[in-house]
Specification:
The complex is a heterodimer of chains A (430) and B (756).
Chain A (H helix, E strand, L loop, with lengths): L9 E8 L9 E5 L4 H12 L7 E5 L2 E2 L4 H8 L7 E7 L5 E6 L5 E5 L5 E6 L3 E6 L4 E6 L5 E9 L3 E8 L3 E8 L7 E7 L5 E6 L5 E6 L3 E6 L15 H13 L3 E3 L3 E4 L5 E6 L5 E6 L3 E6 L4 E7 L5 E6 L5 E6 L3 E6 L12 E4 L4 E6 L6 E6 L3 E6 L8 E4 L7 E7 L2 E6 L2 E6 L6
Parallel strand pairs in A: 1-5, 14-18
Antiparallel strand pairs in A: 1-2, 3-4, 3-5, 6-34, 7-8, 8-9, 9-10, 11-12, 12-13, 13-14, 15-16, 16-17, 17-19, 20-21, 21-22, 22-23, 24-25, 25-26, 26-27, 28-29, 29-30, 30-31, 32-33, 33-34
Chain B lengths: L2 H17 L1 H8 L8 H30 L2 H24 L14 E4 L6 E4 L33 E4 L5 E3 L6 H10 L6 E4 L4 E4 L2 H11 L43 H15 L57 H9 L26 H14 L12 H4 L15 E7 L5 E6 L5 E6 L3 E6 L5 E6 L6 E4 L8 E5 L2 E5 L6 H11 L15 E3 L13 E4 L7 E6 L5 E6 L7 E5 L4 E3 L11 E4 L5 E5 L4 E5 L4 E6 L6 E6 L5 E6 L4 E5 L8 E3 L6 E6 L5 E6 L3 E8 L9 E9 L9 E6 L6 E5 L3 E6 L1
Antiparallel strand pairs in B: 1-2, 3-4, 5-6, 7-35, 8-9, 9-10, 10-11, 12-13, 13-14, 14-16, 15-16, 17-18, 18-19, 19-20, 21-22, 22-23, 23-24, 25-26, 26-27, 27-28, 29-30, 30-31, 31-32, 33-34, 34-35
Helix pairs in contact in B: 1-2
Classes of the chains: A mainly beta (430), B alpha+beta (756).
Family (chain B): Belongs to the WD repeat BOP1/ERB1 family.
Function (chain B): Component of the NOP7 complex, which is required for maturation of the 25S and 5.8S ribosomal RNAs and formation of the 60S ribosome.
Organism (chain B): Hypholoma sublateritium (strain FD-334 SS-4)
Chain lengths: 430, 756
Amino acid sequence: MSTSTSSVASQPVVFSTRTQYPLPSQKFMIPTSWKRYQLSQLINKALSLEKPVPFDFLVKGELLHTTLNQWCSDNGVGEEETLEIEYIESIMPPQKMSDFPHEDWVSSVSCQIQGHFLTASYDGQIRAFDYSKNLVSTTMAHTAPITSLCVVSSDESTHTVASSSQDLTAQITQIHLDASTSSKVLASLHLHTSTVSSISSNNAGTNLLTSSWDGLIGFWDTNIPAADEVPEPVLNERDRKKRRRIENSTSTRRKVPLLVLKSHIGRVSKALFAREDGKAASCGFDSTVRLWNTEYGVCEHTISAAEKPFLDLALTPDGHSALAVSTDRTMTLFDLRASPTHLAAAAASFAHAATPSCVVVCETNSHQAVTGAYDGVVRVWDVRSTKGAVATFRAWEGKQKVLSVDWRRGIVGVGGEGGLEVWKVGEEVA
Amino acid sequence: MPAKDLAGRKSTKRKQIDAEEIQSAELQSNGVLEMLSDEEEDGDASSDDGHVDEFPEIVNESSSEDSDYDEDDEDEDEEDTEDTEDENANESGADSDDSLHVFPKAKTIISRITKQPKTVYPEIEPNYDSDSSTEDTPNRVGDVPMHWYDDLPHIGYDINGKQVLRPARGDELDKFLATVDDSSAWTSAFDKNTQSDKPLTAEELDIIRRLYTNENPDAGYDPYEPTTEWFTGKGKEEIMPLSGALQPKRRWVPSKWEKQKVMKIVRAIRQGRILPSKPKTTSTSKFDAYAIWSEPSSSVVPPLPAPKPALPTNAESYNPPEEYLPTEEERKAWEALDPEDRERNYLPQKYSTLRLVPAYDRFIKERFFRQLDLYLAPRVQRVKLNIDPNSLIPKLPSPSSLKPFPTYKSLQFSHSNGRARCISVSPDGEWVISGDEGGVVSLWEIMVGREVKRWQFEGKIGALAWCPRSDVSYFAVGLEDKIHLVTPPNVDPAVLSLTQTVLAPTTLPTAPATPSTVKWTTPASATWSIDTPLLTMDLPASSSVPSHFCWHRKGDYLASVSTGGAQSNVWIHQISRRHSQSPFKKIKGAVQSVLFHPLKPHFFVATQQYVRIYNLSEQQLVKTLIPGIKWISSMDVHPSGDHLIVGGYDRKLCWFDLELSEKPYKVLRYHSRAIRSLQFHPAYPLFASSSDDGSIQIFHSRVYNDLMTDPLIVPLKILRGHQITDGLGVLQVKWCSKHPWLVSSGADGSVAVWCS
């Protein structure tokens, strides 16, 4: 390689990767007129892959869009310097698959059930769609807007879904996706005195976490008790009438939490389970990300950021890092493996053009994440490329706010002001 | 003076002179003896005669010496040695001419007869040696040009007719060696007659030196000898008349003309025209002499020269280079400009020859302007202050160091019908209510912007205010003639029941002694719904839409201001007693805004031009602030209670330190249109002002507990994004209590949330 003709200007390059396609460490002389495509071909040939894998190339944390020559001249790198180029599997340009208009804003979307999308809307309904855009089921879960939704457990056609609402409660609802039987609200979770902002379940579907604007996080099990665990509140005459009307229609059990996690000052915006058992993470408007031990209900670590009211949090599947979006228009990457004294330092920060409202991490690749923002732009990030998003696309022509994203099996569901949109992003993993 | 005395003295003097001649010379200058000077001069002349008489003696002496030549030669040699000694002395002693005697030395001696000093020259000895013509010169060719003998071996003939051979002359090297070896070589000169170098005598050298220094060649000549006064001086007056003629009569008759002149002066003195004993002033002389350089130059600058007209440039040439000629567009642009705005008052034009240049049509005008320039140009030299303009800018911290503050518009909520006049943020900072002129009040989340609840009222919404209590949850809505108190949906049951008991207690409080004109009504509990207000206050019919609400911090008192009403438009409503009172019977001017002091029982009332502070507990006026604003639009008090900001429709924003004067501490004029709304952030050191120019300005306002430190006000950010509709911009701004977020409502019906 190093004996290439001197007529073509070339640059010494060392390739590195964190993917499953490593090259032997060796210095290459790359013609500076090469772009991403040639480099990708080079690696494919060097590895002699059977099925070609497209790669993207990161030079000093920046995605290579131009020729090497152009990049070097823009960044003032001389011809003699050895460039370290990291390559990552490239993400195919996102493609829009379908959209599902809603009457009201969609506050939460879930793609967890294969073949279906679940949406929670501000009109208090949980809707289920199949891939052929049919509205399979509609459940009137709350009288107030639903803020969050998660799938607790799934059977053939019966799914248990938990939802949180602005009516200060969360609910566990059984949804039947075959239209014959109607859905049923199994239990309501009573703890919070303010809007419940998020709900999430662990992988086994045995526990739930709720976070609320009153600064509390509830830790619940999903067993449906035989009787109400909370007495009916003392009501005056007017409320009692109303309540009786509701009670007649449903047989909802009132549940109390197993534990109350209390450490946040102010609004908690998201609480979710970590991959390992007995751990949880939460973020709030007090600019902290807190790591919890749910067995004892104590806060193990607190990551304090300066003036970053966090809106959403996502943990990578390998459990090493957390991504949190905040109202100062950044997504911040925190390395959870670091020692507690160094936890406060953000590993990387990713700037947005508008308030990012939601974040989700790819379930197979710990380096990829998707954020939705109030400018209607959904950005696909690779955390190794800090300078800019790997790919962006606009939902609803970029005029309406994105409030929720979910990314499963190569499909990104985007919920927001305009309803639900489904985009194909990345590899579809069977 | 008696003559005998004089004679006696004279005789004694003479004896003394004999003893010491010098003393007599001194005494001669004494004035006592000068009466007899004439006689002495006569005597002096006689002594000269006596000297002449002595002459034969000298002759005899000389004749006696005449016989012996050798002695004479010796004498001459002696004299020469003396002379050389003298000359040496002269060379060493620099300059006394008298000591140098190249010529026969003149001696000043005292005459024996007249006792006066006289100059005596040595006698000239009239023998053969004394005459140079008798010298034996070997060459007797006479005064012929010596170059006749240039080719010959001899240089002439001696007295015997024999050839005088040319002396041997050395070459130039010998001459040089001679100058080195012989010290007298450089004082010798070439004698043509003998064709050899002859050393110059000391006399000749002295003549040369004198000529060289522009002096008289005669060494004995004294150009500065004292003048002899023959007829002037004391004792030498002509006292005897020159003629014997009689003196004319006028010599002893008093002069008539002199008398007339004197009388004229006397009359003038009597009439006071002349002051005889006038003190002589020193400044009578026309010019005071002074040393020019003695004192340093004064600070008065010299007069300025007249301004010079600018020199003509290439463009003003009759035949300028092509690049100076204007293009057609430049010409048009130049003509389109007003004459005052033009960069230069001519257009370059090209003529092929100077002959074709027409008469200068602007001549008169230009002369006139030049005269105007000269006339109007200030000739006062301004003392130019060398101040770096950057140093005048106060040192403010950079805005990036004062984060957080709102920087961008996070989301926007729109009212479809009409201007969004009023907004209010809930005390926990989660919810926003906004009201528009169509009677719609919307409740929405501050972070998502989704409308959760909407109330429709009849008439314009003038003001909204959320009750600051944290244990209850309701807000006041100001409509025409009515104030509604409404509860939001989805509140905690405990909070809701407490709110209901506060607003609609089962047992109404006892009616106050003085019934108010405001009616408080609560609908029956059966008809309560989330859409209807729990409590309604009916204001008197003549009052108009409440434009401003202010809650007391404890949430029991609500002050409302309705502008445009006929009378008494300030009300303070007490929720717990269900009673409204109008604190002011009569107020000068229309009240614009009211405020409760955050800590003290003080009440701020802003009329159009003044802000008055009342003590509510003592029922008296505490202070009147004069902002200097023509029409106050809004005000807000700092959470510490010591500072007040007042904004006006004339674009001014005044900052008052209430501890200090009644005049503003600082007047800020940053907005280009009327200021509509102001608010301090309750927790962060920030305040915001909104204006009709469609912008919101964020200021950092740090207040120190230290009384000596002035508040720090730093402009941080201008937020733009609201459209100006019908000349109205941003109508109200409110802060979110827990975060540095700002909510603003605009005349375009949009309500925006600005996040940090």
